[in-house]
Amino acid sequence: MLIQFIADSCTNVRIEDSYRVSGDDYIAVKSGWDEYGISFGMPTKQLVIRRLTCISPYSATTALGSKMSSRIQNVRAEDIYVKRSSLHTIKWVLWMSGNYKHADNHYDSNALPVIQGITNVTIGMAAKAKKVPWTYTDVEGITSGVSPWPCDLLPDQGQKKITACDFPAEPLSIDRVVLKTCTYRVNHM
Fold this sequence. Notes:
- The chain has one domain.
- 17% of the residues are buried.
- Helix content is 4%, strand content 29%.
- It contains one helix and eight strands; from the N terminus they run E-E-E-H-E-E-E-E-E.
- This is Polygalacturonase.
- InterPro entries: GH28_Enzymes, Pectin_lyas_fold, Pectin_lyase_fold/virulence.
């Protein structure tokens, strides 16, 4: 299976205006791998994902940090349309885990990323944790009728209190980049 787009340890990237079918994650946002990524310390930041139509029936539309050690920051995802996916074929709707493949057998099992500052999302935990659960800080957002109960930092708002979460009005620096049109012509003999 093939991931369609991978943003790994990069800055000022736009993934826009795409229609694709994927057998794996449609977009994977990463930053390094294990302690090597932590020591290298190059985050993925200033990433804009917008106006996508994707068919990803068995995996994530957007995977944040499936193999991540450094940071992911200032990621904006908007106007994403998902087709032909159902909860019967998708294993997890939102999954964050440090228990993934490793670059080698000598990895530091204590080298885990810190998750903080997540906004405009709803987060829930699995009913029974198999490993040590994540610790998190600075979590903001809304929840309604989530089962199992989400973290204590996200109180239940009830169905009638839910309103849309607006994206920040200020543009990211990548939004100010103007692309030039380049043409190239090949003369066939």
